[in-house]
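Throughout our pipeline, every protein is held as a single compact record rather than as scattered files. This encoding replaces a full spatial description with a residue-level series of whole-number codes. The remainder of this section carries one protein's record, kept here as part of the documentation.
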Amino acid sequence: MLRLQCAHGANERPDMTDSTAKRDAAKLKAKSQFATSERREAAFKEEITRERLARESKTAKLRKLRLAKELEDKETAIKSAAEKAAGKAGAKKRPARKKAPPA
């Protein structure tokens, strides 16, 4: 009967701790890369959220200023119209001229 001999000898079994160590190292590397990717993604989402909040704050501020300006313009227009109306009502009418008799 012919026996094949392995590189590690006939009676030796392959070292399981070596393959387990390689597998564990690969798992650790994969977990590390995944964690790095997750941190990068979380930082990106946080930055997007900060930018959105800043944009919303700026928009709210500008809207508030625009509404205040519109209110001021409306009040000015009402005041101006009231002054014009008071000016017309207070103005005295000139007496009507009598037409000169035909000559």
The longest helix spans residues 16-90. The mean pLDDT is 84.
